[in-house]
Amino acid sequence: MMDKRILTGEQIIVEVGNLKIGGNHPPIYIAGPCSVESKEQIMETAFQLKEIGVDVLRGGVFKPRTSPYAFQGLGIEGLEYLKEAGKATGLPIITELMDEKYMDVVAEHADIIQIGSRNMFNYSFLKTMGRLDKPILLKRGMCATIEEWVLAAEYIVAHGNKNVILCERGIRSYDHYTRNTLDLAAVPIMQKETGLPVIVDPSHGTGIRELVKPMSKAALACGANGLMIEVHPNPPCALSDGHQSLTFEEYEQVRRDK
Amino acid sequence: MMDKRILTGEQIIVEVGNLKIGGNHPPIYIAGPCSVESKEQIMETAFQLKEIGVDVLRGGVFKPRTSPYAFQGLGIEGLEYLKEAGKATGLPIITELMDEKYMDVVAEHADIIQIGSRNMFNYSFLKTMGRLDKPILLKRGMCATIEEWVLAAEYIVAHGNKNVILCERGIRSYDHYTRNTLDLAAVPIMQKETGLPVIVDPSHGTGIRELVKPMSKAALACGANGLMIEVHPNPPCALSDGHQSLTFEEYEQVRRDK
Amino acid sequence: MMDKRILTGEQIIVEVGNLKIGGNHPPIYIAGPCSVESKEQIMETAFQLKEIGVDVLRGGVFKPRTSPYAFQGLGIEGLEYLKEAGKATGLPIITELMDEKYMDVVAEHADIIQIGSRNMFNYSFLKTMGRLDKPILLKRGMCATIEEWVLAAEYIVAHGNKNVILCERGIRSYDHYTRNTLDLAAVPIMQKETGLPVIVDPSHGTGIRELVKPMSKAALACGANGLMIEVHPNPPCALSDGHQSLTFEEYEQVRRDK
Amino acid sequence: MMDKRILTGEQIIVEVGNLKIGGNHPPIYIAGPCSVESKEQIMETAFQLKEIGVDVLRGGVFKPRTSPYAFQGLGIEGLEYLKEAGKATGLPIITELMDEKYMDVVAEHADIIQIGSRNMFNYSFLKTMGRLDKPILLKRGMCATIEEWVLAAEYIVAHGNKNVILCERGIRSYDHYTRNTLDLAAVPIMQKETGLPVIVDPSHGTGIRELVKPMSKAALACGANGLMIEVHPNPPCALSDGHQSLTFEEYEQVRRDK
Questions:
Q1: Locate the DAHP synthetase I/KDSA domain: which residues (chains A, B, C, D) (predicted)?
Q2: Does B174 contact D at CB distance below 8 Å?
Q3: Residues A221-250: pLDDT tens digits?
Q4: Which of A100, A170, A167, A95 is nearest to A132 (CA)?
Q5: What is the rounded distance in angstroms from the CA atom of residue A217 to the CA atom of residue A215?
Q6: Contact C95, C61 (CB under 8 A)
C-alpha cells in the first residue's frame, strides 16, 4: 500500500459523549431497528435496549434500497422520532446519511453519522464528511478490498476528521447461503493498518438471525471494538431486514454471553 | 425479478443530437482520454479521433480515485477544454459527474452525463439524474448483479428520464490478471431485460491495451450497441490509466476491424 | 508468472485424425448431449449433427454431479453407445474421464479425453494424463486463475503430452443470473501465454439456452479456436443440463451465423 | 437443499483412538508442518508440540502444488518419518492423500486421512474414501458453496463412512490481502446442516502468521470443534507455506490463550 498516509496504525480513540471507542476500551454495543417505522416502535425499542444494555441507538431513516419501489424510510420525520427516543433514554443515536442535502439536519441531530456500504466508494461524499466535526461510522463497501477501505477512511481523515469508526459488515462472495461473507480477519487487519476502532455488524454480515450470536462472540474474540446489531420489537413485521433482526430476548442473550 | 417495472424490455432508442443509439442503429464509438490533462491534449485527441472515426468524445474531469492523494482531475477547467474540443470538431461530449454540486454546469456543457461504476449504488444520485432532461450513461457497479443494475436504471427512469445508455465495464472477480472480468453475456441480457442500449468499455473491462481490440470485436459480435474506448496521444505519459489506453494507431485498427 | 515453462506461447497445433486445431485453422465445432442417455438418443444426435455440421461428437458417460443421488451417467455402457455413434457417422468422439480406473478403456475408445472443471486442480490426475499419447481437452477450473490454468496445462505438458486443448467454460462469480461468468478475455490471454488452442463452452459458460448463440459469435470474434456446445434431441427431457442444451434447429442457427 | 440426505444435522462424534471430536467434547488441536521435510524436522516438531499440547500431528507428504516444478513432498519416505514421529510421541497422525494409488499405504499408517481443498469436487475420490473404515478430514473446496460442501460430505457418508470431520480453510474472494477469506459463519452452519464436527484452519484461511492467533480465538468462540495449525521449527526456511507457519513459541501462545 501507499506510503503517504495519515493513518499509520497509531491508535485513535473516538469519543461520543462520555463513550470511548477503540484501543483497550470495552467493546460498544450499537443496536436498534433497520428502519425507524413509527414513534411507538423506536420508543419501545430504545427503552427495552436501554434496560438490557446498549451504548448507542441505531435506526435508519434514509434507506438505500435496491428497488425504487421498496420502502425508502421515513426521512426527516423518522429522524425526529429517533432523536426523541435518544433524548428520552439518554442514549446517543446513529443514523445513515445518503445525501448531502440532509447533512446539516442529520449532523445536528445524530451523535454518529453512518456512511453505508454503498457510499464507501463515493469520494465526493467522503470528502464532505471529512470536513464535519462529528464521528463517522464508515461501513466497508460490499466489494471493497482492504486497501480501498483503508483509503476511503484516509479520504475522511485527510479532509480533517479523525473521528472515524470502521464497520465490517460482510463482503460479497460467490455463495449466497448467507447474505454476505463476514470477513472477521478484517478486524485485526484494519486495526493494524489504520489504528482506528473496528466494529462488526453480524446482522448484515450474515443476514440470518441464528448466526448473529455466534458471529458476535467470534467478533469480540478476535478483538472487535464493538458490535452493531439489528433488533426489532417484532421481526416478522419489520418493514426491512426482518429475517436478520433479533427480538429483545435474543439480543439479551447476545449481551449476556459476550 | 420484480414485476413492477417501467423497463419491461421494450426497445428504447436514445438520441444524442442526430445520433441514434440502440436497436438496429449502427454501434456508436465513444473515445478519448481517461482524464482531460490539458487543452492541447484534448484538442489533439479530438481532431485525431474525428479523422479516424468517432461518434462521441469522452474525457474525465472529475476523477474518482481510490487514493485521496492521486490526481483528482482538472475539474471545471477540464470541462471547459473538453467543451471547446467538442465544439471545434463538432463532436458531442461525455464526462462523468460525481457530485451534485457540479450538476448544473456539467448538464449545461455535456451531451451525455456519465454515472461511474462507484456511483451505481448511490440511489440519491440516481434519483436526481432521473429528474434531468439529458442522456445518462450508467456504468455497471463493480460488483453489481444483473438485478441490481436493472433496478439502478429503473431508479433513473422511474424519476422521469428514459434516456439511459447502459455500459458493461467488467466486474470484480477473484482473478487479477485482468483489471476486471468483462462480462459480455450481460450485453444480450440487459438488452432483453431493459430494452435500453448497452455499450461495452473494453478498456476498463480488461485494463490491458492488447485486449481492447479482441474484446471490442467480441462485444460487437454479441450485439453491443457501441464501444467506449480510452485513447491517449501518449499512453505511457497519461496521468491515469495509461496501461489500458490505446494510441491513435491502435484505435484506428479497432475502428477498421469492427 | 514463473519463468521456467515449456509452454512459452509458441503456437501448438493439436491434431485429431485429419482435424487440425489451433493457429489459423478454422474453428472446430464440438457438439452433443451433456449425457449419453440411450443408444437411440446418441445415434439420432450424431446423425443430425453430422448433417448440420460438426467436427467432434461429445457425450458424457461419467458425470461429476454435485449430489451423490443425481444421475451419474451410463458409464461403460454409455461409452460403447458413443463409440458406435462415432463409428456410424465417422465423427471423432470426446468424453470426460473422472477416474483413472477407467483410463485405459476411455483412452482406447475416445479420440479426445476431457478433463472436467472439477479436476483441473487434481494434480495426480494431470500427471497421469501427461503420460498418455492422446489429445486432452482441459477445462478451466471453476475458480481457477489464469496462472493456475496455465500451470495445470504445464503439468500435462511437463509429463510428456503436448496435445492439450484448453476450454474456457465460465468462472464462478457473485452473480447467479447466469450459471457461470463466461470470461472471454481468457481466450486471447491463454493463447498468448501457452500457444495452445483455446475453445469456448458457451453452454456451461452461461447455463441459458438463449445466450449460447450470441456468446458463440463473441467467442469466435475474439479468436477462439472452436466451440463446445450442448445439443439434445429434446432438451426439456434431458437427464442433465436441459435448460442450457440447444435443439438441432437452434444449433443449426449457431452454425450458420458464425 | 435436497431433502434426501443421510446427514440430517443429527450430531455425529468422530473417534480417533481415545480422542472424541465433535459435540460438546473439548476442541482438538491438530498441528505440524505444511510439509514433512526430514526425519529430524518432524521428530523435533512432534516432541515440541507434544510438550506444548497437541492432539494430532499433521505433516504433508504428498503436496498439491500449483506449479509442476515446485517441491511435491517426500512421498512414502515422508510418510514413514511422520509415522515414526507419531509412534515416538504417542500422537495420532494425519496426512493428505491425493492419489488412490497410495490409498492403502496411507490408510495403513495414518490415523486420519485428509482430503485437500483441491479434491473436494473429485467425486470418484470421495466415493472411494466413503468405502474406507478410517476417519476422513474433508477440507472445503476453495470455491465450494455450503451446499456443495454438504453434498461432498454426503458422498463419503453415502458410501459407508460416517467418520467425517469438516475443515473450513477459507474461500477465494476478490481480495488478496489475505491468502483466502476465512468464512467463520460456515462453522455453525455446517454443524447445523450436517451434525459433523467442524474444525478451522486459520493458517491457510489467512496465510498470514500474525492472524493465526486472533482467528483461532474467533473460531473457538463461534463453536469450532478444533483447530488445524501449521507449525514449523524454522518458518523462514520452510519448503512450503513458511509465511503462515507459527514458531513453537507462537503456537504455545495460541494454545494458552484459547
A1: 16-254
A2: yes
A3: 999 999 999 999 999 998 888 899 999 999
A4: A100
A5: 5
A6: yes
Q: Which residues of D141-179 are buried (b: 16+ CB within 10 A; e: fewer)?
A: bbbbbbbbbbbbbbbbbbeebbbbbbbbbbbbbbbbbbb
Phi/psi at C115 (nearest 5 deg)? -100, 120
State whether residue A209 sits within 8 Å of chain D by CB: no
Distance CA B96, CA B65 (A): 13
- On whether any CB of chain B is under 8 Å from the CB of D237, the answer is no
Residue range D25-63+72-256, CATH number: 3.20.20.70
Substitution target in A147, A177, A258 with the highest count of D β-carbons within 10 Å is: A177
Among the partner-chain residues A176, A177, A188, the one whose CB lies closest to the CB of D214 is A188
User: For residue range A102-143, what is the model confidence (pLDDT) as tens digits?
Assistant: 999 999 999 999 999 999 999 999 999 999 999 999 999 999
Average pLDDT value over all residues in chain D: 96
The CATH architecture assigned to C14-61+71-178+193-206+219-231 reads Alpha-Beta Barrel (3.20)
User: In CATH, which of 3.20.20.70, 3.40.190.10, 3.30.450.20, 3.40.225.10 is domain A28-64+71-256?
Assistant: 3.20.20.70
Q: Does B81 touch chain A (CB under 8 A)?
A: no
CATH class of residue range B27-63+70-256: alpha beta
Q: In angstroms, rounded to a whole number, what is the distance separating the alpha carbons of residues D153 and D126? A: 8
- Report CB contact under 8 Å: B101, A123: no
Radius of gyration of chain C (CA): 17
Helix (H) or strand (E) holding B168: strand B164-168
**ipTM of the predicted structure?**
0.96
Using the beta-carbon criterion (under 8 Å), do B210 and C188 form an inter-chain contact?
A: yes
Binding partners of C (≥3 Cβ pairs within 8 A): A, B, D
Chain pair B-C, CB pairs under 8 angstroms? 99
D170 Cβ contact list (under 8 Å, min separation 6):
D142, D178, D179, D180, D181, D182, D183, D201, D204, D205, D206, D207
Instruction: Name the nearest CA neighbour of B184 among B145, B223, B210.
Output: B223
- D214 inside 8 A of chain A by CB: yes
Residue B1, pLDDT > 70, answer: no
Any residues with CB less than 8 A from the CB of C87 and at least 6 apart, and which? none
Closest approach of C97 to chain B, Cα-based (Å): 27
Three-class DSSP category at C113: strand
Residues of chain B found within 8 Å of residue D173, distances taken between Cβ atoms: 174
* Neighbours, chain B (3 or more CB pairs < 8 A): A, C, D
Q: Which residue of B has its CA nearest to D176?
A: B174
